[in-house]
């Protein structure tokens, strides 16, 4: 047998334990760095997204005003056309009376009786 084999094994186990602890510490440090990098990347992305969304929001506020103005102009145009139509056209009862008078005049006119016979 080898002399002092138990001391050699004990030193080997001690070195293995120390290397295991160091590997765990390195792994924890790497995980912490990965977490910090991810957190920094997320915060930068959110900041850029907030900046981008605020610019888009300002653009949509301008577009909203333009759309409201356009809808008001369309409404004014439609009301103008409707008023013109109602001023130009005859009212419904007067139009019916005029049609009835035309029919009555055609039935009792001497020219239409010549054509009918």
Q: What do these coordinates show?
A:
- This protein is mostly helical.
- Helices cover 92% and strands 0% of the residues.
- It is built from three helices and no strands.
- It is rod-shaped, with a radius of gyration of 48 Å.
- The termini are far apart.
- Keywords: Membrane, Transmembrane, Transmembrane helix.
- The chain crosses the membrane at residues 20-47, 67-87.
Features:
single chain; 117 residues; mainly alpha; membrane
Q: What is shown here, in short?
A:
By secondary structure, this protein is mostly helical.
Fraction of helical residues: over 70%
Overall body shape: rod-shaped
Q: What is the string of SSEs from the N terminus onward?
A: HHH
Structural class: mainly alpha
Relative strand content: under 5%
Sketch the major β-sheet. Answer: none
- Name the average pLDDT: 85
- Report how far apart the termini are: 151 Å
Write down the Rg.
Answer: 48 Å
As residue ranges, the low-confidence spans are none
Number of DSSP strands?
Answer: 0
Helices, by number, come to 3
Keywords: Membrane, Transmembrane, Transmembrane helix
Transmembrane segments: 20-47, 67-87
């Amino acid at each position: 047998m080898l002399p002092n084999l138990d001391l050699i094994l004990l030193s080997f186990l001690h070195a293995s334990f120390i290397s295991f602890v160091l590997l765990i510490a390195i792994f924890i440090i790497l995980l912490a760095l990965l977490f910090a990098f991810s957190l920094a990347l997320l915060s930068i992305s959110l900041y850029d997204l907030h900046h981008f969304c605020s610019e888009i929001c300002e653009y949509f506020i301008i577009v909203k005003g333009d759309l409201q103005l356009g809808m008001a102009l369309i409404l004014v145009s439609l009301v103008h056309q409707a008023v013109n139509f109602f001023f130009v056209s005859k009212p419904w009862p007067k139009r019916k009376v005029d049609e009835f008078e035309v029919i009555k005049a055609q039935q009792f006119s001497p020219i239409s009786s010549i054509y009918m016979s």
